[in-house]
Every structure is written in structure tokens, then in C-alpha cells.
Amino acid sequence: MKKIIIAGNWKMNLLQAEVIQLMSGIVKHVKAQRLPNNLKIVCSPVYPYLQTAQSLIPEALKSSLQLAAQNCSEQNPGAFTGEVNPAMLKDVSCKYVIIGHSERRQYQKEDHQLLAAKTKNAIQSGLQVIFCCGEQLKERQQDQQFNIVQQQLEESIFDLHPDLLSKVAIAYEPVWAIGTGETATPEQANEMHQFIRELIHQNFSTEIADNTSILYGGSMKPANAEALLAQPDIDGGLIGGAALQVESFTGIIDIALQLKPTA
User: Fold this and answer.
1) Residue of 74, 103, 139, 173 with catalytic role
2) In the chain, what are the helix, strand and coil shares in percent, each to the nearest 5?
3) Domains in the chain: how many in total?
């Protein structure tokens, strides 16, 4: 059974004391639940606090509550000042890395070729990847959203060997719905998730398509999580603002527990 992933992207937020407070609250909540094997909770603090967050996760929860880095280098160890390679992230117990987030595409000008290199390096180093894709508002207004997402996937991850694609979850983030107060309707979101799954089917196989986790990354919060997670092709969320508060993030976890198949 494919993984259901509830991932919090903390972005460039929270100092160490706040990280401890947030992570401790999430740990307390998750500890009180009986999480199924296929439900994974992922938290992604900034680099300096990864080990702080990891130290708060009890051994018994480490298969269910895991850490992601928000980025990694495409390079292996060497003279690359300011970079962090995926082997280093694995060394501090990261299980996932987020690659291709719209903010990095926009502000750091990361292109398809670079994202492909980062993805391969991360997987080869033993990390799982949450690969982001999605359209800008203007692209949706021009009815180009499917073409944009297809290009982002084909030029970055669709040349992976099928065995490597199994290490990738895809996060669809309609960029126009991030931090704007707007949200794609559940039907709009599921339509794109269904389209992505069909692309995987066409390029790989039905089995791989059925087992790939496709997350919604456009301002999921407790108020809309039930409607989104009830959609058949939405396998979890990549959550921004709502991940910075214990109550809202754990509320989404509880909704996923109620709605999604368990194993």
C-alpha cells in the first residue's frame, strides 16, 4: 500500500526554542496515536536545527515521525562553500529532502536540469525525495497548468530508473494558492493529481503509478484538509503555514487518520 505522507515544510521559520516547542508538541500527539505503517509524518526544520528536532523523536516513533531537509546540493563533498550534500543529511538522520519547491524555483532560479541532478544525488545517497511541481496563476489563467506540470516532471524525474522513482513522492503545489489565502478546490486539486498519476502510468507502469504518493501542497489546513484528503488521488499534504502550529498540524494528521486507508 502506498504511503500517506503528512509533511510540514517549516521554511525559514522558528528559532531553536520554538523548534523544541513545536517538535515536542507533535511528538506528544503522535505518541498518543496508533499510527498505521503506511502513514508517515515528516517535519522539515532549517539545517541548523535538524539534529535538535531529531533528538526529540523517541526511538519507538522513528519509523512514523521523520525529518526532511528543505534542500540539498547536487554535488558530492568538495569545495562548494555554503552547500550541504545529501550524504550529510542522511548522516544526521534525515529520511527525506524537499526538491523543486516553487520558492527555490522562483528565488534561486533552479531549473529542470539542476533539479534532476539534485534528485538523483539525493536518492543515490539514501534519501527519499518530495519533488514539487506546480503552475503560476498566469499559467492557470491561460489553461497551461497541465503542460507546465508535465514539463516539470518529464525534464526532472521521468528519466529515473523505475526502481529509483519508487523513492520519490510528488507534491503538487499550485503556486497561486501558496500563502495567498487561496486554495485550489478539492476537484481542481484531484484533477491535477489524477493527471500526474496518469503521466506516471504512461511513462512507467500502472503499478508504479498506483504506488506513488502524490501530495497536495497548496495551503492545506484543518479547515480544508477533510475535503482535500477525501479525494481519491490525494495521498497527503506538503503543509506550510499550518505546520508551524501544533494544533493545526496535528489536526491535519488526525483527519488523515480518519480518511485514508491504513496498513
Assistant:
1) 173
2) 50, 15, 40
3) 1
Closest CA to 237 of 245, 226, 20, 13: 226
- For the stretch 76-90, pLDDT in tens is 999 999 999 999 999
Q: Which residue segment(s) compose the domain that 191 sits in?
A: 4-259
Q: Tell me whether residue 101 is one of the annotated catalytic residues.
A: yes
Burial of 203 (0-12, 13-18, 19+ CB in 10 A): middle
- With a CB cutoff of 8 Å and minimum separation 6, the contacts of 164 are 120, 123
Distance, CA of 19 to chain centre: 19
Please name the helix (run of DSSP H) or strand (run of DSSP E) that holds residue 131, with its range, or none.
strand 128-133
Distance in angstroms between the alpha carbons of the first and the last residue of the chain: 7
pLDDT for 165-188, tens place per residue?
999 999 999 998 877 767 689 999
Looking at residue 234, which CATH number applies to its domain?
A: 3.20.20.70
Of the candidates 101, 110, 139, 193, the residue annotated as catalytic is 101
Q: What is the mean pLDDT of residues 149-155?
A: 98
Query: C-alpha grid cell for residue 236?
Result: 497527503
The pTM assigned to this predicted structure is: 0.97
